[in-house]
Amino acid sequence: MPRSTNAVASRNRRKKVLKQTKGYFGRRKNVYTVAVNSLEKGLQYAYRDRRKKKGNFRALWIQRINAGVRQYDMSYSEFIGKINKKGIALNRKTLADLAMNHPDAFKAIVEKVK
């Protein structure tokens, strides 16, 4: 019995990879073996960085809160400690937004915490 290959499925599999690597530089976009390697690496980075993004944003919020709180002679850690002790349930994302865009509201929170 002759060996049979499923050329349709193989071609579709390769086309799927090459379609995903569209826009890559050089042979990464049109040579299948190179494209597979660069695509796998790119997907690994994407998976890792979706998680890393959350930490990056938290760090950004902390910097913004710290900058906002320093105007009122307080440190970030001091502020967070006092805000938790008072039982004010605002997360860092909200506090950072208030510090950036609504300084009057942020000042009111700082005064309440002091």
What does this structure look like?
- The chain has helices at 7-20, 32-70, 76-86, 92-101, 103-113.
- The chain is mainly alpha-helical and 114 residues long.
- It has a single domain (7-113), classed as Ribosomal protein L20, C-terminal domain (c-terminal domain of poly(a) binding protein, Orthogonal Bundle), CATH 1.10.1900.20.
- Helix 1 (7-20) runs parallel beside helix 2, helix 2 crosses helix 4 and helix 4 packs across helix 5 (103-113).
- The chain is rod-shaped and about 85 Å long.
- The mean pLDDT is 95.
| Assembly of the depicted chains | single chain
Main structural class = mainly alpha
3D shape: rod-shaped
Helix fraction, binned, reads over 70%
Question: What's the SSE blueprint?
Answer:
Layout (H helix, E strand, L loop, with lengths): L6 H14 L11 H39 L5 H11 L5 H10 L1 H11 L1
Helix pairs in contact: 1-2, 2-4, 4-5
List its salient traits.
c-terminal domain of poly(a) binding protein; mainly alpha; 114 residues; 5 helices; rod-shaped
In short:
This protein has helices at 7-20, 32-70, 76-86, 92-101, 103-113. With 114 residues, it is an all-alpha fold. The longest helix is centred in the middle third of the chain and has 39 residues, at 32-70.
